[in-house]
Amino acid sequence: MAVPKRKVSRARRDKRRSNVWKLPMPAFSKCTQCGELKAPHKVCLNCGYYKGREVISKEA
């Protein structure tokens, strides 16, 4: 059975374990009403529409 020849340093061990910086960028989609970028499956913060219906009334 293979056995490590030397102790793995803390820096090398922590570099291997730190995969937090590899998180993917959040997805965005365009609003069908105003064209503003918004998070998918969420109400558009710009116009207040979701799936073509007005959910939050926004004053123009």
UniProtKB/TrEMBL annotation:
Gene Ontology biological-process entries: translation
UniProt-recorded Gene Ontology molecular function terms: structural constituent of ribosome
Keywords: Ribonucleoprotein, Ribosomal protein
Matching InterPro entries: Ribosomal_bL32, Ribosomal_bL32_bact, Ribosomal_zn-bd
SUPFAM superfamilies given in the database record: Zn-binding ribosomal proteins
Pfam families, per database record: Ribosomal_L32p
A GO CC annotation given for this chain: large ribosomal subunit
HAMAP family, per database record: Ribosomal_bL32 (MF_00340)
Protein family per UniProt: Belongs to the bacterial ribosomal protein bL32 family.
Protein name from the UniProt record: Large ribosomal subunit protein bL32
